[in-house]
Every structure is written in C-alpha cells, then in structure tokens.
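can u pls check wat happens w/ uridine-5'-diphosphate
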Amino acid sequence: MTADTQGWTLVAGGAGFIGSHLCRRLLEAGERVLCLDNLQTARIANLDTLARYPRFRFVRGDIAHGLPPAVLREGAAIRRIYNLACAASPVLYQADPEHTMLTNVVGTDSLLRLAEQSGARFLLASTSEVYGDPDVHPQPEAYRGNVSCTGPRACYDEGKRAAETLTFDFARMGRAEVRVARIFNTYGPHMRVDDGRVISNFIAQVLAGERLTIYGDGSQTRSFCYVDDTVDALVRLMEADLPDQQPVNIGNCQELTIAELVETLGEVAGAPVRVAHHALPTDDPQRRRPDISTARAWLGWEPSTSLRQGLHKTYAWFAEEHRALRVPAAAE
Ligand code: UDP
C-alpha cells in the first residue's frame, strides 16, 4: 500500500506524553499520523522529534471547540482515531475544570461523529480515575467506582465517565466501532518536568537537590506502568477483534505506597533523598491497582517493564534533560 492510499491514523493529544510515544510507535510501523493537539499541556519538544518523520502531520486545534477544518477535510481518509486529548495531571486538569469537562464531552463527541462519517475505528483513552477512591481492590472493569461528582477531581473523572458513555452509545447505536482503554498511572521519558504527577515531581526534585513532596503520610498506593507497555496495549486494543464490548484496564499490577516509591527512587538515583510532607489533596484515592485479566485474555498483553527498570530509564532521561537545561545557565 502506498502512503497516499493508506489513509490517516488520527491521534488527538498526539503531542502529549502518552500521545507522542504512540505517534512514534505508529510512524515506526509505517503509518501516516495526523496529530491534533491544542498544545495546552503538550511538551513542544515532542513535536520536534515527531516532525522528523515524513508521514507525520500536525494540526493545532482544541477538540473542546469542535474539529478544525484541516482535520474534517481528510474525512474518509481517516481510518483510526485515538482520543488521548486531555490534561491528565490533577494539577493541570484542575487549572481549568470547565475546559477539562468540555474536552471530554464535546471533544469525544466531535471525534465520534468523525468516526461515524469516515468509518474509522475509535479508541478512547479513559482512565482508572473512573473508579474514584475505590472500595473494591484491585479494580476490575465491572466495578462501577466511587467517584464524587462535585469534588475537584470530578471535571476529569466524570468527564471521562461521560466520554465512556458517549463512546458506548455510539457503538450501541451502530454509529461507530469503538474501543475504550482505562489507563492506570503511566510514567516514562517525555513527561513535562512541571507535569505535577508524582514520578516526574520526585525525579525533578531529586535532580534539583530538593525535598521530595509527599502528599499526606505516603501510605496511599498506586501501580505505575512504563509508557512503552501502555502504548503497546493501546495499539493491540485498537487492532484486536474483541469478543465483547467493554472497557479494558491497562496498567501494571505492581502496587506500592508513595513512601515505598520514594525509597525505590532513592536507590535508583543512588543518592539519599529528603522528604517534606504536604497536605493530601481532596479526594485523593487511597489505593489503586488494576485487574488486567481482560487485557491478558483479549490482547495477550501484560507489562514487561518492571518498576525498577522503568524508573532507571526515566531517571536517565530526566537527568539528561536537566543537564541540557543547565548548560546555558552554566555558560553565563
Ligand atoms: N503525590 C505526592 N507528591 C507529589 C505528587 C503526587 O505524594 O509531588 C501523590 C498524590 O497525592 C497521589 C499519588 O502521589 O496520592 C499519585 O499522584 P499523581 O498526581 O501522580 O496521580 P493520580 O493517581 O493522583 O492521578
């Protein structure tokens, strides 16, 4: 198939953290990638790297306000749509909660309509946040969650829940062929240093010689998945024939407390770390670990990168970024 007859894979949010890794994976597999991003929380350097691939095209636009003409014009040439467009760090998605909600509702609706018109298969990047502060542990897809619809996280949690509703409604009505991935905490290179999530915060703090900011007493748990594993699962989910319509959890089952994460990171960095305790954010889930039986059975997938391996790679990448940023300052 030549590039021109091959059609586009549209990645909304393709300049962001997971989105840019996904774009690179697709480009390396020979796909033509149309990246749509509003650059609200993207790392601009991610785009520079992607722009080196001849089959990559970037369109700036905000799905919360509908789709730009440059995307709509491609119409039937679009054969796959990944929707990863939304700020995912609690600090960033709470900075403009109305926009976060609209990104998920108006944005997902616009992309689903495009999928309907073009016949493209649609994948929604949903989140473990749909389980809220879970009272079932680990969380299987059948668990309906414990989410506050009025709290500060609701713009994201409820936004993603509404996006899932829309996605399955389109499928039930025969309007689009869909996939829904519930992505648990993911980390790796190409996160923004000021992203605000725990692993990027901690690594940036170690490199700056600052105290690591533990929110609360550090007894809350998370299960962290290395980004290459997450992207592998997303592509498999998009391409697989599924036996049933349901969301699929994507995450790593190795659960640890935030205090244990500090300890592990200190070992990876090979340096003593100091901590400072800060207030626990409102509605911060106390524990989180995916049940990935569905992904194992349907996609033949499970993560292959251990936390220690992933932290080593991520720390090395952040250390390189840190050095590069310090060079001009040192030269002054
Ligand atoms: N956290 C922390 N220090 C930080 C950032 C986050 O202790 O500098 C905690 C946060 O309260 C939560 C966990 O780490 O319990 C994961 O937070 P993150 O923002 O990465 O993602 P979340 O899973 O809450 O969406």
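The chain has a mean pLDDT of 95.
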